[in-house]
Amino acid sequence: MENLQSYWSDFKGNLWKKEINVRDFIQNNYTPYTGDEAFLAGATENTKAVWSKLTEMFKVEIAKGVYDAETRTPQAIDTYGPGYISKENESIVGLQTDAPLKRGIYPKGGLRMVENSLNAYGYEIDPITKEIFSRYRKTHNEGVFSAYTEDMMAVRRSGIVTGLPDAYGRGRIIGDYRRVALYGVDRLIQERKFELKKAEAPELTEEIIRKREEITEQINALKLFVKMCASYGFDVTKPATNAKEAVQWVYFAYLAATKDQDGAAMSVGRTATFLDIFIERDLAKGLITETEAQDLIDQFIIKLRIIRFLRTPEYNELFSGDPTWVTEALGGEGVDGRTLVSKTAFRYLNTLYNLGPAPEPNLTVLWSQKSPENWKNFCAKVSIDTSAIQYENDDLMRPDLGDDYGIACCVSPMKIGKQMQFFGARVNLPKALLYVINGGRDEKSGAQVAPKFEGIT
User: Fold this and answer.
1) Residues 111, 222, 236, 409: which is the catalytic one?
2) Are 27 and 274 in contact (CB under 8 A)?
3) Do the beta carbons of residue 223 and residue 190 sit within 8 Å?
4) How far apart are CA 438 and CA 430, in angstroms?
5) Is 229 a catalytic residue?
6) Closest C-alpha to 368, from 73, 9, 34, 18
7) The pLDDT of residue 162
8) R_g over Cα of the chain
9) What's the distance, CA 61 to chain centroid?
10) DSSP reduced 3-state for 85
11) pTM
12) Using one digit for the tens of pLDDT, what is the confidence trace for 82-122?
């Protein structure tokens, strides 16, 4: 504990007050960077070894459609023991399943999608798993459809409103994965228990019961998370004590989310400037070199590049490839006028050179007119060389969302850890216009889908 207190004494701000506040820590401790990219380091031999092994596996994955898939055990935080790519070469560890590129199954969301996806690639779901999620366990999709009205069912059947081709309806949320590194899980559990205590009331209303149940599930999930990390030999109950632990803790938190939910878009948030605080502290104390700092980021990005979900071929055709939208927001400006560009923002973009271009993670530059010129020039150079950066207008979004927001999926901004968006349907506007002409009647089936009215003659 003495060493831990000594480590955190290097940072400004009261970290131990009751409120969990990552933004406050960042604002008090980060170092804006206005220089150029001359300090950057190339890939280490360890990184090259890990990436080389995966590169050969990617060839098999492309040929088969999937490298491998689970058929029996539903995915959860603690479903699998530790998994590695090349253990002796990995600086940052952790896999979604027990082997790299192996895809888990999430039948709690909907059994049909799992079956269809497995069948498309030559796999069959285990009969016992199918029976459990057909007879004994209500899935998310069944819950959604049981809440639909007749009018809602009619527009679904007719194709006026359509779901995604993998049949899921989802909400988007960007978890604040930085909290694990900053506070440790014990502190987060303590905070959840405080919220549980606040949710005590003389009358147990439906809202109070639901809130207490959800908080209890969150506490249980954090305990499972501790167990998952311990299987890799790490104790995440306490805050990270160096840059390597900070990167590892953040990745573990994100990994647990991808183990537990089959998100259409699992954004990682806004981690670069946060992690830069730890990296710059260790560099200043001579604990790591720039090469080692880049290695941590390279291997973190490798892990984000191999996040996988089991999808139908139709889903991949719709979105051109096998997207997961592991979006990381880089740069931008603080509400106080300081740039949020850090050296680690440069390190993230440098992975596109050290590892080669890739669509994942979706590296998104929050572009501001006031961003440092050296940063703008480097972004432009990387864009020209790799075609692998997305840009969004920070000056447009910051006034409404502040300076600690991220991008969900590809374009949707939200405050990290504080907001969510609902997403799960598309509206066929040309067909809706045709219904206006036809008096709400479906031209093919003849069914009266919309309320009956006089059509255009």
Assistant:
1) 409
2) no
3) no
4) 12
5) no
6) 34
7) 77
8) 24
9) 22
10) coil
11) 0.93
12) 999 999 999 999 999 999 999 999 998 888 889 999 999 99
The tokens for 345 are 């923002």
What is the predicted pLDDT for the residue at 426?
77
- H-run or E-run covering 393: strand 390-393
**For position 444, what pLDDT does the model report?**
87
Mean pLDDT by 10 residues, the chain (457 residues): 69 74 95 98 98 98 95 95 97 97 92 92 96 90 85 86 63 89 96 93 91 96 98 97 98 96 86 98 97 98 96 79 90 98 98 96 97 98 97 97 93 89 78 91 89 89
Question: Are residues 15 and 8 in contact, defined by beta-carbon separation less than 8 angstroms?
Answer: yes
Of the residues 283, 410, 432, 434, only one is catalytic, namely 410
Q: Tell me if residue 410 is catalytic.
A: yes
Q: For 323, left (φ over 0), alpha (ψ -120 to 50), or beta?
A: beta
Distance separating alpha carbons of residues 334 and 337, to the nearest angstrom: 5
Structure tokens at 58: 């990617």
Return the residue matching tokens 């459809």: 145
**Strands of the sheet with 390-393, listed across from one edge:** 328-331, 363-367, 390-393
**The total number of residues written for the chain in this structure:** 457
What's the token pair of residue 308?
């996988």
Q: Under 8 Å CB-to-CB from 138, ≥6 apart: which residues?
A: none
Task: Give me the pLDDT at residue 383, please.
Answer: 98
The stretches of 329-444 forming alpha helices (DSSP H) are 343-354, 373-386, 394-401, 429-438
**362: number of Cβ within 10 Å:** 23
DSSP secondary structure of 132-179 = IIIII---HHHHHHHH--HHHHHHHHHTSEE--TT---EEEE---THH
Neighbours of 204 (CB within 10 A): 11
Rounded distance between C-alpha atoms, residue 427 and residue 453, angstroms: 21
- DSSP codes, 90-129: -SS---SSSSTTEEEE-TTT-HHHHHHHHHHTT----HHH
| 68-74 and 102-105 beta bridge pairing | parallel
Determine phi and psi for 104, rounding to 5 degrees.
Answer: -85, 175
Question: Please, how many CA atoms are within 13 Å of residue 224, restricted to the half-sphere of its CB?
Answer: 17
| Three-state secondary structure call for residue 74 | strand
